[in-house]
Amino acid sequence: FAGAKFKDIRSGFSERAxxxxxxxxxxxHAHAEEMMFFGLEMRARRYKEPWYSAWLYWLYEKLSDYGxxxxxxxTAILGxxxxxxxxxxxxxxxxKLEQIAAADGMKRIGELYLFALNHxxxxxxxxxxxxxxxxxxxxxEQPALVSVLVGLQTTIALALFFLLLLGLRNRFRL
Length: 174
Hints:
The structure is a single chain. Helix content is about 70%, strand content about 0%. It is built from seven helices and no strands. Helix 1 (about 15-25) packs antiparallel against helix 2. The chain is elongated and about 65 Å long.
């Protein structure tokens, strides 16, 4: 199948055809080809699903290439870290650079970085004692917003780490 292009993902029988080929590759222990046909099967299934579930297939493809990529989840983890670091910045500093110029500005940036890192890598929480909380006035003023951001970031991070582990498993057939 090297170099072959499989373009049919919208016909009525394409999902079943790719599933059959996937199962055949599994019987022959051709893991790379099995994963390729799995991806094609998922793409074909996406076009049969209603919009409210088709977007999940699209997201699965973009974030992990249907569990075949290691780089995509890592990139998404880094992107979510940067996004939430900026979100915390705007919530806690009102997006103003003047507050950083204060004497404790660099200390606050370090705390903010560790706080965002702590919720991007939740399994490292026991080792990142410094980033567990932000004892700043804005956290007291807007605890609900900060809590929602933390919950959202942790949930996204755990989902992305699952996709990363899935990619590692599929890459090395663990």
